[in-house]
Amino acid sequence: MSDEPQPQQPTPGWASRESLAAGAAQAAGPEGSGKQKKPKRPKRTGWGRLIPTWRMVLGTFLVGVLLLVGGFFLGYSLVQIPAANALATKQANVYLYADGSVIARDGEVNRESVGLARISKDAQHAVLAAEDRDFYTESAIDPMAMVRAGWNTATGKGKQSGSTITQQYVKNYYLAQEQTVTRKVKEFFISIKLDREKSKNEILEGYLNTSFFGRGAYGIQAAAQAYYGIDAKDLTAGQGAYLASLLNAPSQYDVVAHPENRPAAEARWNYVLDGMVKKGWLTQSERAAQKFPAPRESTVSTGMSGQRGYIVNIVKDYLISNEIVDEEELDRGGYRITTTLQKDKQDAFVKAVDDKLMSQLDKKERKVDTYVRAGGASVDPETGKVVAMYNGIDYVKQYTPNATRRDFQVGSTFKPFVFTSAVENHSETQDGRVINPNTIYDGTSERPVQGWSGGRYAPENEDHHDYGDITVREATDKSVNAVYAQMAVDVGSDKVMQTAIDLGLSKNTPELTPSPSIALGVATASPLDMAEAYATLANHGRHGTYTLVEKVMKDGKHEVDLPERRERQAVSREAADTTTSVLRSVVQNGTATAAQAAGRPAAGKTGTAEEDTAAWFAGYTPELATVVAVMGQDPETAAHKSLYGAMGLPRINGGGAPAEIWGQYTRDALEGEPVTDFDLQLQTGADVTAPPSAGSSDEPGSGDESGTGAPEDESGDEDSGTETPGGSAGTPSDDTGQDGGTSTGGPTTGGASTEPGPTGGADGGDDSANGGTTEGDDGGDTTGAGGGDPETGTIAGLPTGPGRERQ
């Protein structure tokens, strides 16, 4: 037997890698002695131990899949399709005056369910094009859309929905609207089950019958009646596309209630029609023939007649836009909403409009009288509460709320904002004189403004009247365009625009742009906007956002939080108070003497829109700021119409019906309250007349001859040379008493004074130059026989401006 060690036999069973390797090396004998041994696998140390192996990854994935599959089947088995929700028994919302008396209840559910066969194919396709173009080919849920919507919402691209029509129907019909994880999980499983149990047509039919289209209409049949007065089976492609557009934003895309949102509504409408073409549901030629189908106005039940329907919808918009209550939640009902409106003042407003305007119309004999509309709003300057509104003769007959619409020019009611801005910014004339109520300007008609580099701008005064040298106070009394256009440039039209916004106008007010024409009121603010701004002047320059709601209760026990009212000093007290002193003179001596009927110290300004399509009076006492507008609109086409000949008068101007309505309303609304005078702190030097520099106001500035504007021979086009009914042709003009007009019984004013008083205080100071108090060119003569005070303007080289803008 050899003494050499013998190779070991393999041990049965498992062996370590190291022992197997060693045994293999020994078995190789001398021949394998030249080969290297296989290196040992290093042990995982440090951070390497934290990196999962492929076995761990695979194991985790398999476990995750099992959990997901198990969770899905568990959820599918546990979540059952419930009974329909309680929409059919939804509660009413109750709207109350400030004293607790009921304005209206909106609890009636306007819905009529119809079969899919009774809904036109065009309407069906329009809804699919708007909401879910692949409805018939996709599953009940769209995971990618849900992920995309969640990502967009999380990254700040707006709150979006990733729901299919099936999911939306489940939410409408079976579940509540709250945005919770539990509700979304239920929606997910119910949608899958429903898709297995119902056909696509049944689901689409259910969706069309439960969706909310605005105007209180649930379902497409109710919507077809509400917007077009027809059945759903008769809807055209254009009409169906508009109704489908409403699903995206029912309250905002109603172009009758919100004419300012029409561009956005039309864009959505075009998107829907383009989608129909893309899916082959509409030919290109049919698409090209489509015209936007404007909905009708009168679409509501008599339960909302009179002012009630207007108030309910304006308050709803207020609650939704201020994010106090979600639109869908509000429509579900159960809310008790106490408004700031005061019943006695609301009734007084309606009566004043009826007495001074509506009762004077003869719609059978005068077609123009059918165009007449009225709107107004009244605000407590100290609290910002809206205490009364007038929106139209009847919500059932005229749907558009005239107190909040933003599509008529405000005219010269904007001029006080120019003067306020001048005082606020310590502005000077082109020759360095501080602008105050007694600063002298050149009031020559069609005088080109100085210092404006944007092109020639030479607005015309009424009847081409040249006033020559005139104080700012007199120019405000007589609403002299030449003076205020120049003042806007002296101040800076951008500063004027900012002052108007600070006082209360929305920065999104249409046509509110920096140019000299801003002074003539080309902007289209609403009466409520203007009332808010004038309330700031009445409140000595302190602005607080207006409010329409005092209290909101849900289900009688949960009080809804209201936004805290914000108040700030928008302009200095001296700027606001000095403006008030000037506007007092307009009521005492100028175009608004009819407002003296209020029987209280009052300040205000008249205004007329281009082509006499609207006449305004905006005014205030220390206790109440109120704006009244009389507007012209065709009841069939909704086009703006001139009011020449309305009420049997040559024209309706701001000093006529609007100021008369204001006077009666203010008197009645404040009946029984003590009479108080304005407490004014005036601008330094407001009682000192600044003489003009020699020749300073007679020559245009360098900016006027830059050649960028229209040629001289084009400046007298329709904007300045057109005679208008009730103007100089054939109608005598009062000319605001520049020759010493007859007294209208206004308060006697004495010399300039900074101390307010019942006889005029700081407002007196220009009567000696005026030749005495006047009858008023804008309706001071309440018979209307004397015409008005048109502020026509010649605009060349400017993007915006009035054609015939008046005081």
Automatic annotation (TrEMBL):
Could you confirm whether the keyword Protease appears in this record? yes
Stretches of Gly residues bias are at 738-749, 781-790
Write out the biased-composition intervals (Acidic residues). 711-721
Query: One Pfam family, short name please?
Result: Transpeptidase
Q: Which reaction does it catalyse?
A: [GlcNAc-(1->4)-Mur2Ac(oyl-L-Ala-gamma-D-Glu-L-Lys-D-Ala-D-Ala)](n)-di-trans,octa-cis-undecaprenyl diphosphate + beta-D-GlcNAc-(1->4)-Mur2Ac(oyl-L-Ala-gamma-D-Glu-L-Lys-D-Ala-D-Ala)-di-trans,octa-cis-undecaprenyl diphosphate = [GlcNAc-(1->4)-Mur2Ac(oyl-L-Ala-gamma-D-Glu-L-Lys-D-Ala-D-Ala)](n+1)-di-trans,octa-cis-undecaprenyl diphosphate + di-trans,octa-cis-undecaprenyl diphosphate + H(+); Preferential cleavage: (Ac)2-L-Lys-D-Ala-|-D-Ala. Also transpeptidation of peptidyl-alanyl moieties that are N-acyl substituents of D-alanine
InterPro entries linked to this entry: Beta-lactam/transpept-like, Glyco_trans_51, Glycosyltr_51/Transpeptidase, Lysozyme-like_dom_sf, PBP_transglycosylase, PCN-bd_Tpept
Q: Where does the Glycosyl transferase family domain lie?
A: 102-276
Residue span of region Disordered: 1-46, 432-462, 686-807
Give the coiled coil ranges. Answer: none
Q: Where are the transmembrane segments?
A: 57-79
Please give the Gene Ontology molecular function terms for this protein: penicillin binding; peptidoglycan glycosyltransferase activity; serine-type D-Ala-D-Ala carboxypeptidase activity
Q: Which family does it belong to?
A: In the N-terminal section; belongs to the glycosyltransferase 51 family.
The family database entries (PANTHER family) matched by this protein are listed as: BINDING PROTEIN TRANSPEPTIDASE, PUTATIVE-RELATED, PENICILLIN-BINDING PROTEIN 1A
The protein's name is Transglycosylase domain-containing protein
**Origin organism of this chain?**
Streptomyces rochei
